Amino acid sequence: MPHGRALRHLEGAPIPEVCLAVARAAVNGMTAEWVPGITMQAKLGAACEDALLEARWRKLNPYQAEAVRARLGHSTDPLMRRKARKAYLMGWARELEEHGEGWDEPATKAVGAAFVDYLVRLGMFEHHKAPVAVGKRRTNGLRLTETAAHWLSNAAEFEAASAEVFFPTIDPPVPWTEPSGGGFHGRGSLDHPSVPRNQRPFWIVKNARKEHKALLLKADLSTVYAALNAAQDTCWRINPRVYEVFEELRRTGRGEAGLARADNAPEPERPDAADHDPKEHEKFLARRRDYYAEERKMKTKRVAELRTFETVKLFSDSGRFHFVYALDFRGRAYAQSEYLSPQGRDLERGLLEFSEGDEMTDDGAWWLKIHLANTYGKDKESFDERIRWAALNSDWFCRIASAPLDMVREWEKADAPWQFLAACFAWADYVNGEPLCRLPVIIDGSCSGIQHSAALVRDEDAGGRVNLVPRTADEKPGDIYANVAERANAILAEKATALDTRAFRWRYEWTVTRADTKASVMTLPYGGTEYGNRDKVRKSVEKQIRKGKKVRPDWLRLGKDNREERGSAFKVLSDAVWQAMSEIIRAPIVVMDWFKACAGVMRDRERVLRREAHKAKAVEPNLRFAWTSPCGFPVLADYRVSKKRRTTLKDANGKTITFEYYAASGATDWNTVKDRAPPNVVHSLDAAHLMRTLAKTRIAGIDRVSIVHDAFGTTPAKMGELARLLREEFVAMYSADVLANTLGRMLDDAGAERPQEPLKGGLDLNGVRDAGYMFA
Questions:
Q1: Confidence check: pLDDT of 699 > 90
Q2: Dihedral pair phi/psi, residue 404, rounded to 5°
Q3: pTM
Q4: Where would you tag: which of 174, 183, 389, 775 has the fewest CB atoms within 10 A of its CB?
C-alpha cells in the first residue's frame, strides 16, 4: 500500500470513521477555488488524529467512572467511591503514557499527504500550481476536479451538512472564572493531546500556545471574565418576522435583498464580431471571466446562506439561546458560532433579536430613529437630520413592516437591508402601541483605529476628524474618509494643471469620494503601507464599478492591451490618496512607527542577552513581544522563526509533487513581530475598551448587549446609557499613560531602553465625555 510508513500512525484506528472524517475535512477544507497543498495536508492529518482519538475516547469516556462503580457493586460508601475515582484516574494515567504527546507536525503532514494522494487518485482533487498571494511565487496546491466541483455544486445540502461547526447554546454557557473550562458544556477537564479536541477544556484564548496559557494563569482577568459573562448571559432568539421573509425569498430564489440566486445566470454569448475583431474578442473573454468569477462567488454564497438557513431553522422554535465568547491572542472577543452570530453578516444580525426586551421610552424612540437612519445609510448626517428623516418616513417604515415581500425592492436599497427591515418591524410595533422592544440597536465607532491612535498621543486634529470632540446635534459628524478624499482631489487637480493626463482623468472624469479612500484610511493605523495602499485603492474602485455605482471609464477597461495603462492610472490615484493621508492624519503614522521601534529595541536586547549567554555557555534566551492591555489581559504576539520542511508525493504519471511548509522553532521572528506590531497593539486597545465597558454594563442596569469589536448594541431604551458608558470608559482608559503601561513596561522588564515616545498634542480627553458622535 502506498504511504504505508506514514499510515503506521493509524494502527488500530477505525478505518471507516477515519475515511468519513477525511472526506468531511476535504470538503470543508476547500474554502476557495484553490488551496495550498500543505494546508490541505494539515487539515486531513488533524482529522485523522481526531478520529483515532475519538475511538480511544470511547474506551475511556466520562461514563467510565460509573462503570467502575458498577463493578464495585453500586456502593454508596465514600471509601468505595474514592476507590472508583482512583481506578478511573489510573486508567487515564495508563492511557496518557501509551499515547504520549500526540502527533508532531511532520507526522500530521505525512498522514495528511497520504490522504491527499488517495483523494487525487479517486478523482476528487487535482494538483495545480498557483501563487499564494499577489506577487508571490507559484506553489503546489489542490483544486477540485471538474467532476467533483459539478457534484458539489449540485449537492449544496451535503456540503452544508458536512460542516463541523460551533452552534449557540440553549442553556446559559459556563461562566468564565478561570482561563479554561468556561463557555461550552460537556467538555472534560483534562487538557492533553490524548483527548479529542472537542473534549478538551475550552480555553478563553483559542489555539493558545503553552507560553500564553502560562501568562493567562498568572494574570488578573476579573475584568475580562465580567465582560465575557455579560455577553454570554445575553439571551437571544430568532426574529420570527425576518425569518419568514428570509425563508420566502430563499424559496423564490430571485436574488432579492442581497441573497444568492437559486439558478445560474446564462453564460455570455460570443458575438460574431469577435471572430474578426481582436478588441471584441478581448471584451468577450473579459465578460466570460467576470461571469465565471461571479458564478463561483454565487455558489459560495448559496452554500453560506443554506448553512445560515439550516442553523436558523434549528433554533427558530427556541425561545432563548446564548452565544459562547472567547478571545484571540490580542483580547478581541468572538462569538463561537458559525453561520449565525451577532458578529456575522447583515443577514445574520437582522435575524437575531433579544429574547427579552425593554419597555420603550421617549429616549428609546429617539435611538430607534437613529438606528433606522443608520441602517438605511444616513449615518453621515447630523443627529437632527437623521431624526427628521426618520420622522418623515414613519409611514413608509410601517408599510414595509406590513408588506415586506411586496416592498422588497424598496428596503433592499438600504446599506444594511436586513437590519433595516428588522428596525421597520420594531418601529411599526412602537407606533401600534407595543410597549416592549427586543431589537438590538447598534452604534459604531468613527474609525476606531484612528480614535485610539489619536487618544494615545492626544492629537487634536486627528481626534476632531474621528469625533473625539463635542459637537451639537445639528452639526454633521466628522468624516475622515471624506476629508482624505477632498484632499486627494486637490492633489490630483494640482497635478492636472501640470499636464498630468492620468491625474486629470481621476479628478474630473472620476472624482474621488469617500468610497475610494475608506479602506485605505481604515487600515492605516493597523500597519498600512504605501505599497499595500495601491491594492486597496484598486479594489475600492473596482467594487464601485462592479456594484454599478460608477461606470467603468475607457481608460480603465480590462484587457491585455490596457494592462500597463491601467496599472499606471491606479498608481497615480494611490499616490494621491497616500499623500492625502500623510498630510491629514499624522497620529496613526507616528504611533505606528513607535510600535515598530519597540519591536526593534526588543530584538536588539535579545541579541545582547544571547551573546552574553553564549559567552557564559548558558542557554540562550528567546524574548517575546508581550504586554498587558489596559483591561488586564496579557497579549502575546508569538511569531516564531520557522524551519522549512517538505513532503513529496508522486502523481499518477510518477511525477514528483513537492509541498513545502514551515515548522515553528522556539526563536522569535522579529521581522514579523515588527510588521504586525501596529495592528496587534491597536486591536488590543480597542479590545480593552470593549472589556472595560462590558464589565460595567450590569452595574449600569444594561442586561442585554451585542458586540462587534468597535460596534456596540443594546435595546433602544438602554442605548443612551451604553453610549455614555462607552465614552466614560474611553476617557478613564486613556487618562493613564497607556504607552508606558503597556509596551513601556514590557521594555523595562526586558531591560531594554525605551524609544523616545511621540510628542503629545492638545486633545482634551475630558471633552470626549460630551462627544456624542464618537459612537453613533
A1: yes
A2: -65, -30
A3: 0.84
A4: 389
